[in-house]
Amino acid sequence: MTKAGGEEGRTQAREGMTAGQPVRIADYDARWASTFEEARAEIVSRCGALVVAVEHVGSTSVPGLAAKPIIDIMAAVERLDDAQALIEPLAALGFEYVPKNETPDRRFFRRGLRGAGTHHLHVVEHGSCEWRRHLLFRDHLRAHPERAADYERLKRELAAAHGPDRGAYTDAKTPFIESVIERALAEEAVSH
Prior knowledge:
This protein has a single domain (6-191), classed as Beta Polymerase, domain 2 (2-Layer Sandwich). It is 49% helix and 18% strand. It is built from 6 helices and 5 strands. It is globular and about 40 Å long. The two termini are 25 Å apart.
């Protein structure tokens, strides 16, 4: 959910995601949770102590929410430099490391072909802003079904409007995501 730095970063992000199949939003599938759990067990087993936490994030982690049928996983390491040591063990699990200059605070791995991946793995530092923002967004949507419904409507509209331009689809979702994170932070501040 990190915004790419400047216009150049947004352009690179869009170019990296433009080619391929149209964005497809699937109705919620209860199997997404067990698919995540299977991948989580594989990651923990293969990567050992380097990975300190693994979370299901993104739309597939919110019960009832329609989503692109790609399991988003966030794995935390103590230091982002530790992610380099994960490339080989994750490759053995079918996760390809995909360098992305526009997201310097995380490392991205994909299981499956570009544009047709089944899993996206985001490796971040434990407790970092990236870690916190992903969890705030997920937890807020889980706790507020009306906001999740708003997000689903928006995603379906954007998928129809942007077709195969995944970068434009992602960019257009950013204001909504940022507003949810702001609400979650405000609620958190009030409760403390």
